[in-house]
Amino acid sequence: MNANAKTGQPGTHTRYSVCTICDIGCQFRSVAKDGQLAKVVAHDNPMLAKNICYKGTAAPHIHNHGERLRKPLKRVGERGSDQWEEISYEQAMDEIAERLSGIVDRHGPESFAVSTSGWNTQTTHALDRRFMNLLGSPNWISGVALCAGNTAAVNKLTYGWFPMGDLANTNCIVLFGHNPRKHSWTPIYNAINAARARGAKVIVLDPRVSDQAETADLHLRLNAGTDAAMCLGWLKVIFDEELYDKEFVANWCTGFEELRERVNEYPLERVEAITGVDRELIATAARLYARADGAVIPWTPITDQQLSSTSAIRLHSILRAVTGNLDVVGGETLGGFNPNYISESELGLHERLPLEQKEKQLGFDDYPAFTYRVAEMLKEPCERVWGFPYADQVMGCHMANPTSVFRAMVTEEPYPIKAFFALGNNALLSYANQNQIYKGLMNQELIVAHEIFMTPTAMLADYVLPGDVFSERNHIADSWSWTTRLTLSQKVVEAPPEASSTFQFWTDLARRFGFGNEFPWQTMEQILDHRLSKSNRTFAEFEASAFMEAPQPEFRKYLKTGFATPSGKVELKSSLLEEMGFDPLPYYRETTDGSAEYPYKVFTGVREDPFFQTGQRNIKVLRDRCPLPSLFLHPTDAEKEGIRDGDWARLISRVGAVVAQVSVQDTMKEGHIRVPHGWWYPEMRGKADLGGAFISSDAMLSDDDHEQLDYEQGVPNFKGFAARIEKTEPPEDLLAAQGA
Amino acid sequence: MTQRSRLAHWIAERRARLMTALANRMFATDNSVRTRLVKRLTGVNEAAEHVDPELEHPEEPEH
Q: Å from B37 to nearest chain A CA?
């Protein structure tokens, strides 16, 4: 069995790929014919064959799309007018370097911000951070601030690493709103099914009857945004009934008594009132989780985006620890850095950014949980336990706060942000308060976008550079140190001549700034050779030997090293939060924006199977599966509002509004409205502002006022903010653009 | 809760390490005796066929 073998068709050749169309990284095979990606097929290894979805098999439609960017573009009209001239890559890079250099001279290096999605770009190898750290800018942001990256950072507050659930051996899986499906997070979906088939129990906590909820052993329909209260209720049961690992708590945890006092403030009557879930069901679920021999609470994007997000994520961590599920088989393992591959944390040269520049990072003072402030506080324990002082897991542990960055773009306080690069990241629609982001982008002196398709954010740029895609490059993915697994992705076709990888982009820019000595690699394969030098191998040797490998796992490592926290223990009461002036114990904070005028609880940021983030709306075979965004509404609420299934409605929050079609669903929880993430309309390019970016985008709805942010991270509340809904007429221009 | 005896931990951890060692052979593409033997014993020596109509798309080109 070898992907290099012919697939039976003359003139084709096949390679192993890691898909980058979403964030999960499925492994499959790419088939090329006549210099083009012809087909994507399932992996030939029986253990991986089902890890493929219809987004992945749409790769040829994406990679060969007629509208794919193939030439560097320079803006010729007003910003946002979407008027361009084609220029060469070399001219674009020369001009970008010159203009960025001028901005740094005038405003300082901190005036330069970057927003990127590592899921999309993949091959940066942390060279963005490397360049920024050498230049002196700490202001790197990413969608991972709202999704997985922030979870990694908050986990580190409690036990110094972001664990991965051992789904292969677990006996209980708790899904806090997470809903892996056949065509979304497919490998997790398959792993859950396999666990269930061998008897593992599944607990789902979701306001909606989701796909996972339909087959769960227990389904708790909690109110949106109440995860922290639910976890406190679970701990109340676990402590009162002594279902915790007393030996582990006594030997390896700090702050147990203080935590217990805090938990006692949440009797089940109170938790029932907050969450809307019957207290007996809460207790039953807590017992099922706590009594399992091996239980996991896998990462969930839902808990990442709540008013009490830091507390809720910490409570997941605390539940893992007190029930003895930390770093054990069937629990959640703390893998550490892969010993055979230089990590992105190391490549990023975080130690080269001076402390005074780190202290300028936007968010450092106000919302420090995932900024350099915590990273600096964790340096010593991180080096002691993991062998390197900076662990930027999932790219999310050394970030600026996105809201603070966009606010600084508008207000120029505490200092101006004047240059903004977006790589594989449609920033305008990807964070809270889209109107503020738009104003901030309009106040830039230089915007550079690096994309495979024109996006609303790219339409605001001065330069748009065409990027490459997974079939056009070699790569070894390491999940940004979330796991220790290495997976092979092979180049099967050539990229368009003027397209660049993010590796190439940052390397070429760095050389223009005189950082050539720190960017010695000429090709992607050379930096892969460098990363593999820890195991004395080259990329060619790795490629010839395996499509995936993992080092031998170690468990209960804390017995030898302690945990990577200041105390060396699991900090149930966080010394880091306390030192920074925050409540060191987890708590639940009620939303305050609800009223008779805004009676519904809205949850946004919801992923639909055909799309990832704001992408793929221009891919016909995917868009045909979901032509328009739908607001989900309970039948009782629909009747109350006089709205029928298929009607159009305007959903209005305190800061903005969206228009979309309504889908009346009895799987919804009454009083709740679900809004899909990231909608814009590529077919409206040239007919509406920035491709209809202001019609249905959920970023229009979310507030970033201080009281609507999580206090410690400054992430916005996407789960349970208030809004009202009213029937409206269908947007004629949108329907006309669709040919309806 | 997950509170195991030392022996139970030791057995579970050795089993996990053995599974990782086997997996590394199953995911290898070299043609060594060891790799071929593991693949044969674990039944992954034959290429998988995964056909699912939901994964199919129309052949029409994009734009």
A: 13
Taking a C-beta distance cutoff of 8 angstroms, is the pair A595, A721 a contact? no
Q: Which residues contact A550 (CB under 8 A, 6 or more apart)?
A: A483, A484, A485, A486, B20, B23, B24
First to last CA, chain B: 56
**Rounded-to-integer distance, Cα A423 and Cα A465, Å:** 9
Distance from A65 to chain B by nearest Cα, in Å? 5
User: pLDDT by residue (tens digit) across A657-677?
Assistant: 999 999 999 999 999 999 999
The answer to whether A480 touches A446, Cβ cutoff 8 Å, is no
ipTM: 0.95
Q: Is there a contact between A248 and B3 if contact means CB atoms under 8 Å apart?
A: yes
The partner residue sitting opposite B29, judged by closest CB among A57, A166, A545, is: A545
Residue of chain B whose Cα is closest to the Cα of A286: B1
Helical H segments across A474-523, by residue range:
502-512
How sure is the predictor about A636, in pLDDT bands with cuts at 50, 70 and 90? very high
Which residue do the tokens 């609303």 mark? A456
Judged by phi (left if over 0) then psi (alpha if -120 to 50, else beta), residue A644 lies in beta
Of A141, A735, A80, A113, the residue nearest A455 (C-alpha): A80
Q: Calculate the CA A42 to chain-centre distance.
A: 25
Task: Note whether B55 contacts A52, CB cutoff 8 Å.
Answer: yes
Of B13, B23, B54, which is closest to A550 when you measure between CB atoms? B23
- Pairwise CA distance, residues B24 & B38, whole Å: 10
Chain A residues with CB-CB distance to B47 below 8 A: 1, 44
Q: Which of A317, A203, A311 is nearest to A265 (CA)?
A: A311
Q: Which helix (H) or strand (E) holds A213?
A: helix A211-215
Residues 6+ apart with CB under 8 A from A645: A638, A662, A663, A664
Task: For A239, list phi and psi in degrees, rounded to 5.
Answer: -75, -45
In this complex, do B29 and A323 lie within 8 Å of one another by their Cβ atoms? no
| Planar angle of CA A567, A571, A577, nearest 5 degrees | 95
Stretch A695-699: mean pLDDT:
97
Q: Are A113 and A400 in contact (CB under 8 A)?
A: yes
Is A328 close to B62, i.e. CB distance below 8 A?
no
Yes or no, beta carbons of B63 and A54 under 8 Å apart = no
Cα-Cα-Cα-Cα dihedral sign, residues A685, A690, A693, A695: negative
* CA–CA gap between residue A435 and residue A348 (Å, rounded): 32
Q: Provide, as residue numbers in chain A, all residues whose Cβ is less than 8 Å from the Cβ of B41.
A: none
What single string gives the DSSP state of each residue in A278-328? -HHHHHHHHHHHHHSSSEE----TTGGGSTTHHHHHHHHHHHHHHTT-BTS
Query: CA A91 → CA A54, A72, A98, A105, A505, distances in Å?
Result: 38, 9, 11, 21, 13
Backbone φ, ψ for residue A433 (5° rounding): 60, 70
Q: ω into residue A414 within 30 of 0, thus cis?
A: yes
How far is residue B23's CA from residue B15's CA, in Å, rounded to a whole number? 12
pTM greater than 0.95 (yes/no): yes
